Amino acid sequence: MEVTVRWQGKRAFEAVGPSGHVVRIDAAPEVGGEDGGARPMELLLMGAGGCTGIDVALMLEKMRLHLERFEVRLEGERAEADPRRYTRIRLHYILEGPDLTHEKVVRVIDLSRRVYCSALHSLNAALEVRYTLNGETRDLPPDAS
Amino acid sequence: MEVTVRWQGKRAFEAVGPSGHVVRIDAAPEVGGEDGGARPMELLLMGAGGCTGIDVALMLEKMRLHLERFEVRLEGERAEADPRRYTRIRLHYILEGPDLTHEKVVRVIDLSRRVYCSALHSLNAALEVRYTLNGETRDLPPDAS
Predict the structure, then answer these.
(1) The whole model's pTM is what?
(2) What's chain B look like in SS3?
């Protein structure tokens, strides 16, 4: 996988990879940017959320379970000192669907987290996972499977 | 930092964070997607490249050094077995500008890599760094500073 990030002046960049979809990146005005695109640290969480989201949507589809609504919220906690990396990421999966059960939802989230999700495994942050299924929120224990 | 990744059907998601810039994510058709957005693993490299790119552009601006062209190419090498995380990332900085010297370019790239870049430090891959300054390519040694 190769990506090119091209400078557009000041703090702005345009990024493009093999898919051809251009992503604009910029810093906030308070650090000299012009807010012309997403922040780099947002893109890391978006990549992680998209990766595990695709895993979960794919596995539920294979199980022929219908999703009515699905989102993943990711909260990244950063170190206080430079380089201020993500030390902990809290993932919250929110799912709605009439056929979904806690057992099946725990199974697919755990498989993504433990086995399949390339992006989550590419980050060196600790993970905390919880989910809300049809309005009921539960933590996903580290040894869910 | 909190980001929400919302499912749009099949393998498609829309991601948004505090900046408000929406990033579309989708899988390739060969894995059930519709190519409606960037791949999650592209976003990780884009975030890393944008982060170190902003660092370098900012430091050169502070040093009053004029950039005529600047891009960062990132090549991610992945593990063969699931979860196929990035094990190694090769960064190639390409810079053009009449006032730039090898010494100054090495200094700012090394400061970003070692001290400032939150996104690079949030990834657990090994890094290999080289740069091309006004057409001349050199490796950046791990102990550049």
Answers:
(1) 0.97
(2) CEEEEEECCCCCEEEECCCCCCEEECCCHHHCCCCCCECHHHHHHHHHHHHHHHHHHHHHHHCCCCCCEEEEEEEEEECCCCCCCEEEEEEEEEEECCCCCHHHHHHHHHHHHHHHCHHHHHECCEEEEEEEECCEEEEECCCCC
Chain A positions in Cβ-Cβ contact with residue B39 (cut-off 8 Å): 1, 17-19, 50
Report whether A76 contacts A86 (CB < 8 A): yes
| pLDDT tens per residue across span B120-130 | 999 999 999 99
What value does the mean pLDDT take over residues A40-60? 98
Which residue has 């053009």 as its token pair? Answer: B96
Which candidate from A5, A19, A72 shows the least CB-CB separation from B71? Answer: A5
Contacts of B41 in chain A (CB under 8 A): 1, 47, 51, 118-119, 122
Cross-chain Cβ contact A73/B123 below 8 Å:
no
Q: Rg for chain A (alpha carbons), in Å?
A: 17
- Fold for A40-140, please state it: GMP Synthetase; Chain A, domain 3 (3.30.300)
Tokens representing A96? 């709605």
Interface membership of B117 toward A (CB under 8 Å): yes
Mean per-residue pLDDT for A20-39?
Answer: 97
pLDDT digits over A96-143, tens only? 999 999 999 999 999 999 999 999 999 999 999 999 999 999 999 877
